[in-house]
Amino acid sequence: MAAAESALHQHVHTLYSEHNRWLQGWLRRKLGNACDAADLAQDVFLRLLHRQPADIREPRTYLSTIARGLVIEHWRRRELELAWLETLAQLPPAHAPSPESRMLFLETLIAIDRVLDALKPQVRTAFLWAQLEGLTCRQIAERLGVSLATAERHVAAALRHCYALRFGD
Known about the structure:
- The chain is mainly alpha-helical.
- Helices cover 82% and strands 0% of the residues.
């Protein structure tokens, strides 16, 4: 096991040595920011260590695919942060949460976003309407233009997904 782990580390080190500069440039063009590009490039190589890739025939294609997903996560997180900051700006100072609470809320929002993003669009929409707007399955079915049974399945699927993530089923 130690030999395999050492070989993996050497493989990732070689990829890093040969492609990190290129990857940072690629990310800098996507993000417009050298610091964020450097951070995301590091994250790409950390993911490689966790994925334990075998033979990578096209390293730049492989690395850019991982990086593209991280760029999407980066922009989604940025949008959530901005929305959260706008919400906080509207609060009276006496009701503003502490800096620690702000970070916890933001991390929770990001986790919820990831969970919801894993759902199909109609399932996510049905779930959000049920949870946030209190719509019944009949109302959801009318809004989505689907049968009542389909709306019920959508809400149930979302609840099962959330439950499975919460309790590891």
